[in-house]
Queue: 3 jobs
Job 1
Amino acid sequence: MGGSKIRPTPVTKFTGVLTVARKHGDRFRLLIYERMWQRWAWPCILIVPASVVLWWFAPRVPIIHAPFRPLALVPALVSFVILVYTGLARRLAWVQCRRNHLRIQTPFYPLVVSYSRIRGVRPKPFARVFDPAREKAARRRWLRPYWGKTVLVVELSKYPFSRAWLRLWFSPYLLAPDVTGFVFLVEDWMALSRQLDEFRSAWVMRRAEQRRRTSGTS
């Protein structure tokens, strides 16, 4: 008495099955974009002040002609852009299950994938998806923390857009090399797999219920 009422969790009933009515799942950050920050942050942070110092002392250096002095700031500007991009990428790159689709968010390009396009979901070692032997030495070292991790491969019937277009916006390690689909390197692939199964199953049941109602009224 006098206390706040506890509201029951909303549920939706489909053909005798109770499903939690959630609008969206958790956001799972894409680790490949976080790795970009770890790789580029410190070099860029060091280049910016170094370039500014060079620009400041350029008039005192006889071998640097005055018209070329502004060029000393070019590395600083490029490094600053890379620093901003990688900083945004590690916070704005994630994948999330929604009510009717899977949303892939990258720094500058969000993508919506309907559940109807998903053919299968399976875990696979990262090193089995991308062969370390085929990578250049620098990239192989860069990806060293992830070779032993498990990723979630989501196979599709067809990409929403052409693969060439997606490669312009997505990391190459987000697109499956041997099948049509995506590779999700996240911290908890099992949780993402469970939520994908949950939201896809709920979507399938809603579709079945809608068809049943439509056929019943016709």
Note: Residues 31-92 form one domain.
Job 2
Amino acid sequence: MKKNNAFTLIELLVVIVIIGILATISVVAYGGYQEKARIAKAQAFAKDSNIQMLAAHTEKESSMFGHWNFDGSDPNVAIDYSGEGHNLVKNTTNITLAERVLDTPTGIGLATRAISNYYVYHDPSGTTFNVADGGGVTLNGWFKVEDFSSASSILLFANNKYHLRIYNNGVIKFGVNTENGLKDITTPSNSFKHNKWYFVLATYDEDRGLMKIYLDGELVKKDTHSGKIIEFPGTNLAYTYGNTLLFDDFYKWTIPYRSK
């Protein structure tokens, strides 16, 4: 009799199961690699863009206006590490205590859980954001939204003269008010996902008449605008609408960002 060397049905099923398990492990590992690569790219862009902005400020002999990285021991005060002294104080009305978080791409950040429409940090002195000599404005920093229970959260804004807003459908909106009116630009839906850290940079260039939004170093929205920015008092940071918003290492510059 000839010996049957064919696989049995059970053996084939075992092989198929093993292949499926290996494929699943490979997909998960690849997904983790992609996420690490995205964060690394965003960190590199954050570093390079901030170095470029610092050099531009030095050349123009103008101030940065503000840099808040939340590495201080008191979560109720957002210390300005730019040297300009624009510390922001936590608003306690309807806001639970800001929580320090350690899983940010840059060190220690903050998480806020608001139960109503109140800003988390504000400038008690109402310092005017003087951009008359800078030729524009740039806002940049890290954020993560853990849930989308409400419509939006605002990361930086001042009395509707400018804003950087995060929406529950993955949209980022950047608005600037100039002598020719308020102009908003928005990214496509699902530009970002919840429970992930992202680096956002939004800028308006008066001389070139351009508004831009970068996400993790990629230009995701560009449009035209014109006019001198209207000077405005005060700075509010992380105005939340019930969302759990995590943020870290935010800058407000008085000049535009220009990619190399």
Note: Helices lie at 9-60.
Job 3
Amino acid sequence: MAPGRLSTHDRTGILARLMALSSFAGGRLWGARFGGRPPRVLALHGWARSHADFGPVLEGFDAVALDLAGFGVAPEPPEPWSTQRYATEIAQVLSDMAPGPIVVLGHSFGARVGVHLAAANPDRVGSLVFTGAPLAPFPGAGQARPALVYRAGRALHRAHLLPSSRMEALRHRYGSDDYRRATPMMRGVLVKAVGETASSGYAPVLAAWARAGGRLALVWGDGDRVASLEGTLSSLAEARVPVADETVVAGAGHILGPPLHAALREALGRALLQERPGAGGEDAGRPVPADGRPS
């Protein structure tokens, strides 16, 4: 089989997963739909995850959980996208959502994308609920530089003086787990996202959205060693972005699990109480309980 081509088994598996999902934006986006009414929650997953992470969170809500490009069933982007470009692409799904402001739920990488989606569509995104969102570095982390050996190898490779096989070996030795596991295309995406976090550039993007009435909620595991709550809060405060709702979950880490599931359901319920569907809908003015169950 030629390199890069999918086997019959792989193609069959992808087809089966697609059949279990819903398409959006005229078939350009794929994800899971929850509830029977126009969705009021859009969920965006973390790095190397998929829509499936949100199943326990979104049960009982009218919601959509997408697969972002390069993850789940979604093909990789044609070039290393920034998180802003990801937001531009998924903005197409907004036409499939309920009218009026919606709630965007973002975990980790999905929260990075959610920042730009809200900033570019303040009339459509009324609330953000973020968990494990690496919007700023850990305090005192500074700008870490790659090891000297890696930087030297990279320079030699760019000058065509080091073979690709040796460069790949250096990547595996000195790169993060996420970097080592990623394809060359997705490594480019990851490098851009990590650079955005290191520059603390997300909070300033949210400032205008927050001044226009946007509501931000944070739900964090107290054992999260991937995304810094302290760094994120400091960056948001500096940009004058208020946090309307903050929950720290004991015994939870970075990856979504039962303790975070429950806290996110409650945070979504509170966020939805602040939003109202468009006039004329059958749900107009109907609040959503904090546990997410339809009344």
Note: The beta strands are 22-24, 29-34, 41-44, 63-66, 102-107, 125-131, 215-221, 245-249.
